Amino acid sequence: MPSSPPSRRGWGQAIMTRQELIQQIREKRSFLCVGLDTDPKKMPKCVFDLYDPIFEFNKAIIDATAPYCVAYKPNLAFYEAYGIKGMKAFIKTCNYIKRHHKNHLIIADAKRGDIGNTSAMYARTFFEEYDLPALTVAPYMGEDSVKPFLEYEGHWVVLLALTSNKGALDFQLTEDKQGERLFEKVIRQSQQWGTEENLMYVVGATQGRMFEDIRRVAPRHFLLVPGVGAQGGSLEEVCKYGMNDDCGLLVNSSRGIIYASADDHFAEEAANKARELQQQMAAELDRRGL
């Protein structure tokens, strides 16, 4: 456990309360999260003439898409793969968002989680050293692997619940003797550790009507929903079964936006794709009177 968890907003911090997030969604008519899964193998050639290509690519994408989204989700794997240079680009990217787009939530997609003292160090890394407001966490080692992250007032823990990959069938959908599936147990049990003010859940967009089951267990929590776009998830279906009275959704799109074009106009095309999703989201919000 951290000896003295931060309890106030520090310089540059992009912390966002639940109510502030709801307000941003209503003002922007969007619940889009842009995933920064930045892969040099897919980046346009024009950025490689710049000093820090990964950061410069991210910066261009962020500036182009900021009017149409409420959050960014850099995926740590795409930065850690390039060692110190990659992690410097990650930190520069997060600091750029905090300084220039302060109304956007930053979710570090790192899927951390280990025994208590190790989780405490992971929490310290992301919430103190990197000064980030939200982090994805793997819950399958239980309470003591999650609670150190929840010790940080004003920060979000985004817990893996039901993912969209094929392997989700191996464990997440298995049932106990009472017929409760493992993902349902994770959601139900974790609500004893955190609240709707500091706890979200990851639910893959390809899960369809399974969102009804999620909402029976967690009617008010925000859901981070990857898989719309390149992975084939349906925004309409996610909204039909997963949206609540506060919207309650952050729908992520990564490849479908950031790699919309491989030429010099990549940022402009990313903006176009983000705008298309924002307009669809606005229609869904309007349909529900939100």
Describe it:
An eight-stranded parallel β-barrel has the order 1-2-3-4-5-6-7-8, surrounded by seven helices. The radius of gyration is 18 Å and the shape is globular. It is an alpha/beta fold. Strand 7, helix 10 and strand 8 (249-253) form a beta-alpha-beta unit. It has helices at 18-28, 53-65, 77-80, 83-100, 116-129, 143-150, 168-171, 182-190, 210-217, 235-242, 255-258, 266-287, and strands at 32-36, 71-74, 105-112, 134-137, 156-162, 199-203, 223-225, 249-253. It contains twelve helices and eight strands.
Element layout with pairings:
Blueprint: H1 18-28, E1 32-36, H2 53-65, E2 71-74, H3 77-80, H4 83-100, E3 105-112, H5 116-129, E4 134-137, H6 143-150, E5 156-162, H7 168-171, H8 182-190, E6 199-203, H9 210-217, E7 223-225, H10 235-242, E8 249-253, H11 255-258, H12 266-287
Helix pairs in contact: 2-4, 2-12, 5-6
Task: Give the overall form.
Answer: globular
Helix share bin: 40-55%
Q: Name the average pLDDT.
A: 91
Quaternary: single chain
Quote the beta fraction: 5-15%
Cα-atom radius of gyration? 18 Å
Question: Secondary-structure element order, as H and E?
Answer: HEHEHHEHEHEHHEHEHEHH
Contiguous low-pLDDT stretches (5 residues minimum) are: 1-14
How many helices? The count is 12
Class by SSE composition: alpha/beta
Order the strands across the largest sheet as they lie in space.
1-2-3-4-5-6-7-8
- State the major sheet: 8 strands, parallel, barrel
Q: Distance N terminus to C terminus?
A: 39 Å
Number of strands: 8
